[in-house]
Amino acid sequence: MNHASFRFYAELNDFLPLHRKQVIFSHAFDGQPSVKDTIEALGVPHTEIDLILANGVSVDFSYRLQDGDQISVYPVFESMDVSSVLRLRPKPLREVRFVLDTHLGRLASHLRMLGFDTLYRNDFADAELARISSRERRILLTKDRGLLKRNEVTHGAFVRGIHPRAQLIEVLRRFDLVGLINPFQRCIRCNGLMKPARKEDVFGELPPRIRQEHDVFQRCEGCAQVYWRGSHYQRMQRFISQVLSEIQEG
Q: How would you write 186-232 as a 3-class SS string?
């Protein structure tokens, strides 16, 4: 039986049992398994990892464990320059786009509100989520650690937060998205793009009070829902301001 020592850093410890958090621990193995398979067997999805050092040298996921190896595993770096070593993720996506699992419906609405292309259905199967993420180059956000261990998923993140507001702040920080926020460009219901609509073109679809009080409208290109800047719009503006303030303070 061979042994290697492992040390996981920062938030990767969230995936480990208490006795393995923030410490160097020994792991027994047979043969020469890949470091990727071993790390995922220990409970950490590969999409959460950006750097692996074997005996102080940067290695990729295909590295085969040797008896006596000392393995250090680091999480995704968004602000730190690690260009001099081998990063394990593919290059960042040019356009930030998401697909979310069935547990993250409110988060999907919040991301759409901020202008991010976000696919969500409450009946997506795991295999379909993985295919969409790979085929459409979308970041997979999920509460299911096992889903992130699928080989075809290259861009993904385990969402730790419980409440949708906390989840949104977590995602904005994780992917450094504050500078890309462009609110009210997408339909919260279907993710379709919004376009200006003339009042005379939507007049018959408006409640009487809205006809009198509003003159600026948008229509979703996907589901044809009509939007105007009423009290709901004001509440969303306040919500966005509060989220941004919390991020800046954090």
A: ECCCCCCEEEEECHHHHHHHCCHHHHHHCCCEEEECCCCCEEECCHH
